[in-house]
Structures are given as structure tokens and as C-alpha cells.
Specification:
Helix content: 10-25%
Shape: elongated
Number of domains: 1
Distance between the termini: 7 Å
Strand content: 25-35%
Order of helices and strands: EHEEHHEEE
Strand order of the largest sheet: 2-3-5-4
Number of helices: 3
Number of strands: 6
């Protein structure tokens, strides 16, 4: 079985703040076929996201597949509060790269 990285399949992968203590990760698709194939593959799970970010599954507070919007959304705890000492991405918009190489079964 072959695989593709999620970055090869999704139209957009982005991150942003979800308050001062959480990051929202969004994976958006431009076709229902691509979205459904990824959803049904079982490749996007709390465990897969946690592994990509080097956190525990308990830190992934939600994972939602939003069929009407052809998107997947996950929220996880920030390492440091937004704007806190040592924090380097106040808006959370540079937190998406670890998920880019997540592999999805694809034939």
C-alpha cells in the first residue's frame, strides 16, 4: 500500500490561537473525495497528532471531523501561554509544520 503525506492531499493546513493556552490545527480539503478518503483512512487520530507534536494524547483536547466544511480540526495545549516568557509564536500561526509529513494510506 502506498501513502501520501497530508500536505500532498489537503488544500490548506494551518494553525492559530484558540485562546491563550491552546492551539487550533485545521486541515482543509478542496474535494469531498479527498476529505472522505483521509477521514475513512483512520490516519488522523489524537494519537497521530500527539506523536507529530511530541505530546501526550491527553494534551489533544479535541479532534473534530467537520463534514459540511470538508475539514478536520484539532485543539491542543500550548507549551507556553500566548505572549508568555519564552513564547515565540504569539498568534499560534507557525505551529502547523509538524503535521505536514503525517502519512495517509493512499491508492
Amino acid at each position: 500500500m502506498t501513502t501520501k503525506s497530508i500536505s500532498e492531499i489537503a488544500r490548506s493546513i494551518r494553525s492559530k490561537n484558540a485562546g491563550a493556552f491552546f492551539i487550533t490545527l485545521e486541515i482543509l480539503f478542496d474535494s469531498e473525495d479527498a476529505y472522505r478518503r483521509v477521514k475513512e483512512s483512520g490516519a488522523i487520530t489524537k494519537a497521530a497528532i500527539a506523536a507529530s507534536y511530541g505530546v501526550t494524547t491527553d494534551e489533544i483536547v479535541s479532534l473534530v471531523f467537520f463534514d459540511p466544511g470538508l475539514g478536520i480540526k484539532a485543539n491542543f495545549r500550548r507549551n507556553r501561554p500566548s505572549g508568555g516568557p519564552g513564547e515565540t509564536d504569539v498568534y499560534g500561526c507557525q505551529q502547523y509544520p509538524p503535521i505536514l509529513s503525517l502519512q495517509v494510506p493512499w491508492e
